[in-house]
Description:
Chain A is α+β, with helices and mostly antiparallel strands. Chain A has helices at 7-23, 40-56, 74-87, 94-107, 110-122, 235-247, 251-269, 281-309, 322-341, 359-366, 376-387, 398-405; strands at residues 127-130, 146-150, 153-164, 171-177, 188-194, 200-207, 211-224, 228-229, 271-272, 275-276. Chain B has helices at 7-23, 26-34, 41-50, 68-81, 87-101, 104-115, 235-270, 282-310, 316-346, 353-365, 370-381, 410-430, and strands spanning 121-124, 145-149, 152-163, 170-176, 187-193, 199-204, 212-223, 227-228, 272-273, 276-277. The model of chain B has no long low-confidence stretch (mean pLDDT 95). Chain B is an alpha+beta fold.
Amino acid sequence: xxxxxxxxxxxxxxxxxxxxxxxxxxxxxxxxxxxxxxxxxxxxxxxxxxxxxxxxxxxxxxxxxxxxxxxxxxxxxxxxxxxxxxxxxxxxxxxxxxxxxxxxxxxxxxxxxxxxxxxxxxxxxxxxxxxxxxxxxxxxxxxxxxxxxxxxxxxxxxxxxxxxxxxxxxxxxxxxxxxxxxxxxxxxxxxxxxxxxxxxxxxxxxxxxxxxxxxxxxxxxxxxxxxxxxxxxxxxxxxxxxxxxxxxxxxxxxxxxxxxxxxxxxxxxxxxxxxxxxxxxxxxxxxxxxxxxxxxxxxxxxxxxxxxxxxxxxxxxxxxxxxxxxxxxxxxxxxxxxxxxxxxxxxxxxxxxxxxxxxxxxxxxxxxxxxxxxxxxxxxxxxxxxxxxxxxxxxxxxxxxxxxxxxxxx
Amino acid sequence: xxxxxxxxxxxxxxxxxxxxxxxxxxxxxxxxxxxxxxxxxxxxxxxxxxxxxxxxxxxxxxxxxxxxxxxxxxxxxxxxxxxxxxxxxxxxxxxxxxxxxxxxxxxxxxxxxxxxxxxxxxxxxxxxxxxxxxxxxxxxxxxxxxxxxxxxxxxxxxxxxxxxxxxxxxxxxxxxxxxxxxxxxxxxxxxxxxxxxxxxxxxxxxxxxxxxxxxxxxxxxxxxxxxxxxxxxxxxxxxxxxxxxxxxxxxxxxxxxxxxxxxxxxxxxxxxxxxxxxxxxxxxxxxxxxxxxxxxxxxxxxxxxxxxxxxxxxxxxxxxxxxxxxxxxxxxxxxxxxxxxxxxxxxxxxxxxxxxxxxxxxxxxxxxxxxxxxxxxxxxxxxxxxxxxxxxxxxxxxxxxxxxxxxxxxxxxxxxxxxxxxxxxxxxxxx
Lengths: 410, 431
């Protein structure tokens, strides 16, 4: 048992921290800036920053040196992510780093790896994960977007929605139906779609707190045959396997810790009815509780990272609670903090009289959009089903049940 | 980073589980709850033979020289089996205090006897006035006086909620010997023979049916030689051991919680209602998923504190987090179990869950509850420095008012322009 890090790992942590602190502009406040609909200058800055970090290897420290990483393992990757999370920044290519990149590493052909990985590792390419559809949210396998093979191309048609991105993407990591099968998830494949292919249109979608997400429409989009990732009709399994990378994030709790640390400072400086907030018994209790929540999230994330580093030596655990705790904490903490702030809690950043720069109001709104990678409810079903082996109604009966629920025709 | 136990520790766990499954079945736990003494000397002797009583003591004192992690592993298994034995009182709270602060003579005399099961000890600390809240575990809460009288001291006063006092050979009495400038100055630890004249013990009827007592000291004479540690300076070593005890109590609750989880999931899979196992219902699954989260979170918070303690690293924050969280988390875990088990869960003659939740209540309160540790934790985290400032040169591109930030990419720009257009049109209409 060892909850600490080696000297070498601490050295890497310090180096990464110094790099981020030195490069992040003095006037950037992660909880105030929108970060999701960027101006020209902001876009240019974040791209430049991402490339700089890529050169240092801080985007993908866990990747092998051939693929543009630093050749470390998952633990070191977790360390750098933790430091990055603490700054509160967000890589424009977050989806590429955490989802598409690892998927290409595991399931890609040699050509695909050569073609796509360097761009991700060096921070030059932007990837989006385009999975969700109007009728395929929690039920990801209900993909309606179709991909039909015509000669050397797959032709894609359909709509993707709630696609998170900061900056104009270069590639879309997309799921599409390649066969009509029963069960549904056995006829889905993964495609690496160039984002500027003719036939793709983008439409902005306003969301709470996040600023902007996208609707993406495919209309007769031609995707070269060699851009199929992994096996045909196995895309759903590949995608789920690649999700494991996304869900073991050490960045989230670090980010939450930054906010709590700042909030403690705010409570020290701010007086309510003539008494500093921090002296209030209720405030003390709630703040301490939040600190525990964050520590739990940190430990659970690290357990997942550690398990990942022991791959092959440990039996799979079947469930992971990092997403579970992240969803609970990031929903409840802003509400708790807002409660402490009374009427002032509702003031947006930039508003006259706004306290704590309106950061909490922003997080409160963001808390309504914590559903990427499955709602908390889906998380619970996974824990109950995959983790504990509790039964569920076999999917083949779903249609039968739905039919029986229809009102009877006379 | 390594979340696993060593091979030796895993072996210890396996041995412990096998031993306890055989020697401490649920039947025995139930019997002991009803029993007046609630203690099986035979089982205690077996624990001694297994080497568990001296597990954490150095070999020179009849121990095995085990680590604090070993101790936590054993405690986790004891919690799982609900072992009815004065382990925490004797081995940890009293034994480790003697090891920490006692003289060489006291150590060589007492520790081997604890290790081989000949002596049972009990910590007499909490008092009637202070038992309303965490004051019970603070130096402020100690008011029972020990006054010098010739070569001896005379103790007067009442101690409450004293675990295992009724079977103890010795009581480790925490008494006030002077009013110092600070509350922790003037506290002395006396090792009192439990059979001394003037001591009366009365078992209290508690939720868990564990044996906690009222211990009254009426002009009890103790010699100066029976002081553990230094006169007036007993608080520091005692506090250190209370923390260790609290963390081990957490490990105990983790083991118990794990068992509650297993019982609950097993019930959800096998209990059939409406022609289906009840675990197919997502309301039931919700309880089970939360139960996992309660147990896992408690486990890692606890073992982080355990590891830091065994490595002698500063860990005030981690201890406070572990006990504050695990106390309440275990309570919630048991409640989830009750929700799923329903009728079976509250039937006391055969059900196990009542045993777990009742004992859980005692553990939640023992050695400091969540309120007590949340305040301790807050004292630690209010010292956290603010996050370091970014040092990059200011760009002036972030402080543009939100309404004036024109998005650069087409789809968002279109949306932004659309909103601006609508705003203008509305303004025009008003005019």
